[in-house]
Amino acid sequence: MIIKCPECGHQVSDKAPVCPSCGVEIAGHIIKCSHCGELYLKEETSCPNCHHTESHFEPSVNTTEQKSNELSNEHATAAPAVVVAVDKNEANEEKEAERPAAEEESSHNNVEPQQPFEDEGIEDGTVDADFIMDNEADEEVIAKAEALAETTEEEEESKSSKDNHLSLAVSLLIAAITAAVLLFLYNQEIGSSKTNTEQDAYAQAISSNEATVLKNYLDGNPSAPKAHRDSIAARLKALTTTTANAQQANNDLAVALASNSKDVLQQFIAKYPNSTHRGEIEAKIDEIDWAQAVAKNDENAFLGYKAQHPNGLHSKEADEKLKTILVPTVSEGDKTKAVSAVRQLLQGMNSKSTDKISGAVASSFNFLGASGATVKDVRRYMTDKLYQADVKTINWHLGSPAEVKKSSNDDDAELRIKVPATLDIDRKGGKSKRSYVISATVKGGRITQVNWNQI
């Protein structure tokens, strides 16, 4: 964990041996105050921020020595030394009397006798009375010292107990605050979770077309926002209504199809113009109308079907029927006009008559596949193809018309004719005959297109 150095404030890991900035020891030398959370060095006796002393703190050697000195001072004050005046001669005599015994004992133990007090710088025969105490006074001093020690221990224990109680109270307070915060966060999380769950359920329900899903939302979220519940309820109502309408439409469709009646089918379309079955109903009506037209089998019936169903299923069949029914009637007069125009053209070629050719063709017509032809083109063809140097005469002969058709029943309608023909050629060396089929289109008594193919 990254902490601030208690000495210099530099950021440093709590596992680092020393601070890289100031060099103070970090790992194992940092204490976190249980009262205010301040970090300080283990060597300090109390928190520098709130002066709280940790219950596990061990006093340093200096503190112990200080208390020992204080105890000694109290002992000295309580029991003053007793100074005894001793006569110098008497002291010397006692020393002389004790000297042989000491020498004998020293000699016996092979230990050299110690020079009395010379090394200590004390005059010979003089005794410091500060070291001589009365036994009773000594016991009294010792008793007072022990009492003082006991009092000190009790005070230490009391102080330690108070510190422990304070630390316990602080710990309990921190625990209570932590529990309250965690409970608050938990409640917030639960509330947020419930909100998210309701939001997800609402999103799923509002996009669903299943009444069961909508009902489950309303039943499972009684405390949801009013706007959500109202929108879901409205959608459920609309969906229920739609479902009922769809069921009714299905029933009406079944009745219409079963009736096989055009009127009933048309009533269904009028009632349900946007029905998905409209194409099916219209196809059914188309079949009914076609069946009626075929049953009548006349021009008005097929024309009526085409009018009601211009793109109907049987539109092409109706056209074919109309072609058969509406073939223009070619009268004998029409046939005569068509054959007369072709005959006049051939006669003009036989006699080399420009007037007859001009009276048979239009001013501009299609001649043998070439459009825009005139009488001059016919004359050129006669010279180049028919009247060669050895040809004396030519003679076209028409047979009976094989086919005459009319484009319409109008008086000025085109007449299309196919007629067989033979061409006799009289040459200087003999005669020859060729067979052709002449195709021509005649309008207003004049040829607008003519062609012949040899067979």
CATH class of the domain at 332-454: Alpha Beta
Computed CA radius of gyration, to the nearest angstrom: 71 Å
Low-confidence stretches: 57-95, 100-134
Shape: elongated
SSE pattern, N- to C-terminal: EEEEHHHHHHHHHHHEEHEEEEE
Give the quaternary arrangement of the chains. single chain
Indicate the mean pLDDT. 79
Q: In percent, how helical is the residue content? A: 40-55%
Strand % is: 15-25%
CATH fold label of the domain at 332-454: Nuclear Transport Factor 2, Chain: A
Pfam families: DZR
Coiled coil: 135-162
Region (Disordered): 90-122
Protein name: Zinc-ribbon domain-containing protein
Please describe what this structure looks like:
- With 455 residues, this protein is α+β, with helices and mostly antiparallel strands.
- Among the domains are: 2-65, no CATH class; 260-325, no CATH class; 332-454, Nuclear Transport Factor 2, Chain: A (Roll), CATH 3.10.450.50.
- It contains twelve helices and eleven strands.
- It has helices spanning 61-78, 88-108, 135-206, 211-220, 226-259, 262-271, 278-296, 299-308, 315-325, 332-351, 354-360, 375-386, and strands at residues 2-4, 11-13, 30-32, 39-41, 361-367, 370-373, 391-398, 403-406, 415-427, 430-443, 446-454.
- Strands 5, 6, 7, 8, 9, 10 and 11 form a seven-stranded mixed β-sheet that branches. It has a two-stranded antiparallel sheet with strand order 1-2.
- It is elongated and about 190 Å long.
- The two termini are 115 Å apart.
- Mean pLDDT is 79; it is low at 57-95 and 100-134.
- Pfam families: DZR.
